[in-house]
Amino acid sequence: MENGIVLKKLNKSNQNEIEKAVQKLKENEKLLLEFDNSLSMKHFCQVDVRDNLFCKREIEELLDKLGLVYRKFYYPLPDCEDTNVIFTDKHLPDAETLSRNIVFYAENDIKVYEQNQEFEKLLVQDPKLFPIFANSFIVECSKWQFEPNPAEFISYSNMRKEEYRIKTVIAGDKVYKTAASEKSKKHIDQIKKNIDLLNQLGLETLDSYEEDKIISRYQKGKQTLDKQILQLLKENKEEKANQIIDHLVELLKEKLVVLENSENNVFDKYQISYQKEEIAKMTFVKYGLWDLVFPNIFYIEDKYYFYDQEWFDENLPLEYIIYRSFYYNSKLKELMVNRFSIDSLEVELFKKLDDKIQEKIRSGENWKRHTYTSDVWTQIYKSKEQIQNITEDCKKLLLEKDSRIKFLEDNMEQTCNILRETENELNNMKNSLSWKVTKPLRGVRKILK
User: Fold this and answer.
1) CA–CA distance, 93 with 119 (Å, rounded to integer)
2) Do 146 and 77 form a contact (C-beta atoms < 8 A)?
C-alpha cells in the first residue's frame, strides 16, 4: 500500500505489531490491517480453530485505544487469503451478491453447514448483522482524517481460469471492470466487442468502455428483471410478468438474427452429440450472446437495458438463453415449463452445453477446492444408518436363535421320549427270533458288497 503500512493475520497474540506500527506511523499515513473474526460464519459452519481472534467490537475498542479513530471496514469473503468478493458498510450483501462468495475447502475440512445458506438466514433477519458475523476484516485506518478508497464493493472471478478473470468495482454511480492479470486482457477485449455488437444490433446497454476498462452505469436501488418478475408473481400479476417475458423473447429473436439452418452450430463446436430431430424445433441465432439472461437485464419504463455481456458463441439456440434465464432459479423454473415448450430432451442438451462451457471457463483447481468437503452431517447420517442396519440384523439373528432355543426347550422331553422308545424298539428287535434267523443272510450281504 502506498503511503502506509500493511499488517496481515493479526490476532490477540501479535497485537503488539499494531502498536509498533502506530509508533512508526508518519503524519497522514494509513494502516491496512487484516483480521479473522472470532464470531465468523466460517467458524459456525466448519470445524475450525479460532484461538486468540478478535471480534469486530474488540477491534474497534483496540483501534480507539491506539488513536486510530478514522477508519473504514471492508468485509472479504470467503476470507482475506482467498478473497472472491469484498463488501463494505455502504454495500452490504444481498442474496444475489452473496452468491459470489465462493467457499473453498481443504482436504481435511469438515463442513457442518453451508455458509451462504446461513448468511442468507442472517440477511433475512437484518442485513446490518452481517458485519458482526463476517469471516474476516480489512481495516483502512489512521490517526488523521483521510480520503478512503472509494470502492463500495469489489469482486474477483477467482473460480475462473486466469485468462477469464476480471476485477469488478462499484464506486459511486459507476461499475468498473478490469483485467485481473495480463492474461485476461483478451477477455476484456471480447467484452468490448460484445458492447459494440449490442449497440450495432440496437439493444440498449448500460456498458461502455475506455481503453482497458469496462464502465457501467450502476442502477442503485433498482431490481434486475428476475427480481421484477418474481415480485409481479408475488403480487398475482402473472399476466404482466408473461407480457414482459414474451416481449423480451420477441426482441431477442428479432435482433440476434435467426438462421435458416443449424449447420456448424454450438453443439458441434463443443462436440456434443445429438439427433437431428432433437434440434429441429430450436431457433438458432447468429449472435449468441448467451448471457442475455434476466439477472443481466434491467426493465425500466418499458425498455430492456442489458449489461455484463462477457460471452459470445455463434449459431446458438435462442431457447438456450431462455433456459439459462429460468432453469437456475427454482422460483422461475415452473414458469418456464408453463410458458415455453422446452422439452426434457432439449433440457438435457442444454445441461450438457452448459457443462462444456463452464468447464472451458472455470479453474479446475479452485473448482476442486470449492466442491471438496467432508460433510459431517452426511457422514453422521450414513454412520447412523449403517449402525441401525447392523443393529436390526443382530436383532433378527438373536430372535432366530431365541426361537430355536425355545423350540428345543419346548420339545426336549418329547424328543427324549422318542429317542428312548426308538432305543427300546431296536433292543427288542435284536432279541427277536427273526433277527437271529436272518443273521447269516446279513453276513452274505456284507460279503457281496
Assistant:
1) 9
2) no
Measured distance CA(49)–CA(154) in Å, rounded: 28
* Helices and strands (H and E) in the chain: how many: 18, 16
CB 284 within 8 A of CB 316: yes
Residue 25 near residue 5 (C-beta atoms within 8 A) = yes
Q: DSSP string covering 341-392, please?
A: ---HHHHHHHHHHHHHHHHHHB-HHHHHHHH--EEHHHHHHHHHHHHHHHHH
Cα angle for residues 11, 15, 17 (degrees, 5° grid)? 120
Do the Cβ atoms of 216 and 192 come closer than 8 Å? Answer: no
User: How far is 133 from 140, CA to CA, in rounded Å?
Assistant: 19
Would you state the cell numbers that stand for residue 162, as one nine-digit string? Answer: 486466469
> What pLDDT, on the 0 to 100 scale, is given for residue 186?
96
pLDDT at position 324: 92
Question: Is the pTM here over 0.85, yes or no?
Answer: no
Phi/psi for 76 (5° steps) reads: -80, 140
Q: Using an 8 Å Cβ cutoff, are 323 and 350 in contact?
A: yes
Per-residue pLDDT tens over the stretch 328-383: 787 787 777 667 777 788 889 999 999 999 999 987 776 666 555 555 555 555 55
Specify the pLDDT at position 423.
66
The two beta strands, 4-10 and 30-36, are parallel
pLDDT (tens digit, 9 = 90+) per residue, 190-223? 999 999 999 999 999 999 999 999 999 999 889 9
Pairing of strands 110-111, 136-142: unpaired
Q: Which of 144, 145, 149 is nearest to 25 (CA)?
A: 144
Structural contact between residues 49 and 115, judged by C-beta atoms closer than 8 angstroms: no
pLDDT at position 402: 67
pLDDT in tens, 352-365: 999 999 999 987 77
Query: What gap in Å lies between CA 3 and CA 30, rounded to an integer?
Result: 7
Alpha-carbon distance of 224 to 299, in angstroms, equals 7
Domain edges within the chain: 4-156, 225-348
238-255 and 330-339 helices, crossing angle to 10°: 70
